[in-house]
Amino acid sequence: METYQGHVRTPTDAILLFEACRLGLLPRVQRRLSEKERQQIKSGSVFVWDEREAGMRRWTDGKSWSASRVSGSFLTYREMEGKRGGIHLPPLPQGTSAARRARERSNQQSDGSKGESDEDGPDGYRYKPDGLMKQSFSITTQNGQHLHLISYYARSHPTATDLRQPSADATLRHIRPPKNMYPESTVNESTGGVPAVTRGPMPGSPYAHSP
To answer: According to the UniProt record, where is the region Disordered (predicted)?
Structure first.
């Protein structure tokens, strides 16, 4: 069900995978992941899908994630786990003014939060130790396709040598996305030395389908 195994580091990497899917060299996701497939997600898992083709706009993987952060052209998320033990605040006496109540609650919460580690996330949740990072990238092609990419990597070693980078992958080196197919990308200028533009599914491509 995976589209690719590797580490997507740049928009060029993402667009090369989009183009490899268009040419039928790599598979696009056709549906939502099953429970078993979700459990198989690991560092290096990359998924590409077309909104219309897969019938979905949002990606669901059964995991809990932090709020998104902008990281260059990507949105990045950090895996979370369940809430830590809640802070139980004692009741304030009746008749306490609103201003005093707010002040007292603030002090109690401040005291209760002492000792929290860097693994503490917002709203009482904790970052999952050795959890994954997730990044997303989306683009609308010149012909109106809405394409999405989701990739996962381990926070401890996002550039591990065993994870291929698409732009350095010998099996994808011959691919050159058509100019202007992927708006606002610099992939055409940054892939010097590759052969002529590929414009359709290659003969014998195992995942060939209509663009």
So the answer is: 82-131, 176-211
